[in-house]
């Protein structure tokens, strides 16, 4: 049976698209069973719909408080019985209810080399700092901001004439490949987390 993926998005969904494309090959070993979002009208949801994947939206503003939103998001995700939850450009921090249910099997992709430049503006912060190399990180989500155990990282050069958009696009090209590769291995061969270290593959089981 392919691993069941629920993917959460907030924007254009190019990382989601890379997963949807990979999942068309049965040998990939995973299936996107639902796509969720924290807002309506985004291209990520349209990509899911075009692939015939069910979608759901849980907006923070539709709930009494952040905890109620977190509980509702958890319920919506649980309804699709995921083996793995993938945050792919999901611009919200999940909370205790979500982590209680899906902690240890939720990964997030971030456009910087952790632990550098956590937060919402990884590419801009890398440019401002002046680093010559940045990249992308896939990590197991915990209660912090981009602090979880690292599953995979890919380095990306910063060019002298980069602006935020050109750098972010170069990072995203690497990020999509990293995400597809790592999620595929996790789905097919499993993974384990020991302290700060993540082991991928059959040896991890
Ligand atoms: C990706 O670069 C992802 O790492 C980033 O948003 C982009 C989404 O692109 N996420 C964050 O910055 C979260 N801290 P996409 O919607 O085209 O996949």
TrEMBL record:
InterPro entries: Formyl_transf_N (IPR002376), Formyl_transf_N_sf (IPR036477), GART (IPR004607), GART_AS (IPR001555). (6R)-10-formyltetrahydrofolate binds at residues 66, 91-94, 108. GO terms for cellular component: cytosol. The active site is at residue 110. Catalyzes the transfer of a formyl group from 10-formyltetrahydrofolate to 5-phospho-ribosyl-glycinamide (GAR), producing 5-phospho-ribosyl-N-formylglycinamide (FGAR) and tetrahydrofolate. The record marks 146 as: Raises pKa of active site His. GO terms for biological process: 'de novo' IMP biosynthetic process. It is an enzyme of class 2 (transferase). Pfam families: Formyl_trans_N (PF00551). Its EC number is 2.1.2.2. This is Phosphoribosylglycinamide formyltransferase. It comes from Nocardioides marinisabuli. It comes from the Bacteria. One of its GO terms (molecular function) is phosphoribosylglycinamide formyltransferase activity.
